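Q: My collaborator sent me two sequences in one message, no labels, and asked for predicted structures for both. Can we handle them in order? The first one she listed is below.
A: Yes, handling them in the order given. First sequence, followed by its structure tokens:
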Amino acid sequence: MSTLKVTNIESPSGGGVNAKITDINGGQLGNRNLIINGAMQVAQKGTQETGVTTSGIYTVDRFGILLSSLGTWTLDQSTDAPNGFSNSFKATCTTADSSPAASDHAYFRHRIEAQNLQGLGFGSSAAQSTTISFYVKSNKTGNASFNVLQPDSSFKMVGYQYSISAANTWEYKTITIPGDTSGTINNDNGNGLQLEWWFNSGSDWNSGNHQATWTANVSANRNPSNLGVGGATSDNFAIAGVQLEVGGVATAFEHRSFGDELARCQRYFQLGDHAVGRTTSTSNFELLYGFPVDMRTGPTAALETNTAGVAQLGRSAVEITSLNNHWYNSVQSGGIAGTSADTGMTANIVAVGHQRGAISFSAEL
């Protein structure tokens, strides 16, 4: 294929010309980024979580931390970000582990829903390559590990080394990932691909070699380039501007509106709002929450910190003190039964959900 390089193109009369562009880098013109919340804009659960010692999604939506006995961390939707971005996802070590046990590990993870990846054509001769691009910043320098796992194919994986050259400096990285002609990504709402940014582990995970082609998952090959973040207090690791797109070249980051990104995130997690129901006793109630977007699957309800979560019509809003059961569960709405701090309610009176976020609904991958 030939490459044409020009400064500008004009019509014979000196005006502009019409251009018919059918793709960018072999991929679609819009919605190129397969990552949800890659700009780290949405953080429905809050902007900071301290004392983190276990795995979960705590702050930035769709990005989680995987931890096993490796220190204590503060997780932030940080305002320290590279040019062109407002936020990053940052982990800061508050209790260090200078000598991790063999099975200890710490890494960031992002999962992509399988039915959003059907255009990659895995399992066919036309399987598409993809390119991941991201910014990274750490107080540590050296080599680090990035992996992609294929859950529907026994967690087959590829893994790569990248380097952090300067401490406390945002650096831009790109990695091209081959398509897998013998792979499997089911056309369903399960976990289609799992992306991992490792920052520390014990020898069970870092004693092997990187796998540049899609082959069976080998634990020792998950973190061969161990950056060692968390070996000392105040060690930190942050990522921003994450984009995964079809083709072998990283294009400029595709920014989406906050409303668009929030709606995408709410498929996996959302804070309850707009609930109506009834009282069932002097302190108990039932509420039905409608969801602004369909969730990935029937979600799990959880009680969050609240001061005015429910109110009987005509009475003051009070705290929801316990979530007793989740009596209705669909992708479009969720019904919960609970107990309130109000002991003077009357059964079978209208009750309303009064405080957004008193109840959360999770359908995370």
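Q: And the one she listed second?
A: Here it is, processed independently of the first:
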Amino acid sequence: MKRLVLVGGGHSHLLVLDRLRRRPPAHAEIVLVNPAPLAVYSGMIPGLIAGEYEYRACHIALAPLAAAAGACFIVDRAIALDPSRRQVILQGGRLLEYDLLSLDIGSDSPPIPGEPADAIEIVPAKPMEPFLQTMQALWARARKGGLNRMAVVGGGAAGVELALALHYRMNRASGTRVAMALVSDAHRLVPERGAATGQAVQRLCRRRGVALVLGASADVSCAGITLGGRGTLDAQAVIWSTGAAAARWIGTTGLATDALGFVAVNRCLQSLSHREVFAVGDCASNAEQAWPKSGVFAIRQGPVLAANLLRALAGQPLKTFPFSPHALAILNCGGRYALASWRGAALEGRWVWRWKDSLDRRFMRRFKQPR
């Protein structure tokens, strides 16, 4: 009997488990490994931060989902991989052998440049669970009057959502007064989207009272956050959201990686160096297609990954991932207000939030009560 090991409870693996529940493979053992019993749905995290959702609404219990798919669920963290022996090494000391392996472990925050600043609390936006725990402490601190100046470093979609959601939560939902700044080394917010989206986001930030510092690189020093010759950022807490970094242990595995350390895969989501290994989501990259590090694309990859894992178990030809650079992006801006970006156009309003809310809730319903 072949063993398929799924490492990580990312968005793609959720969809794989859903597929396996509906179409269990014959003569195969399925094992899911994740460091926590819950998987987080990143699409609802800005709403959680803004106070629009409860914690449990944004998380999926993996044990019942795995059980419905006929999978064994191990709560542990993968810390190493030996492809020559086809073994995953877990933090608890267990060696897990596999015939087929799939990695969906997300990404980490890049190293924060500079030296630690004792007077400022620097909070990486990843990993998600430690970040959410720190947010709880910051809200409590703000309610007691001990926090009144914050900043987010990173002007991509994630940084924008965090800045707007935090500003709303701190100043409206919680009744406190906390100044918020958003810092980006780009001269326009969300540069990965069209100019219309960037302009709309910048107008919204100004309407909300979020100060913008654009075209400035941020570094940590003993004096605080320095802005590349443009002074020092006056903040007591800084959220660092400047992109994605590969998990360090991937670089020790012998798997082919790109220049940044992400697992290099082909258009079938299969490792370039080890055909029995697949990788998706933020932990993977494809030189031909340059997939964005986005939950939207991880969800798109899920059905193709599920099909290819089943095909690989059966010795059948694999499918290619039909990548398209055009993807709908909806930014939750706090206050049940959202902005949608599609093919260069930008739309915003409360109706856009209701649209996003319905899409997110529909996605979550697939996994809340598996049968």
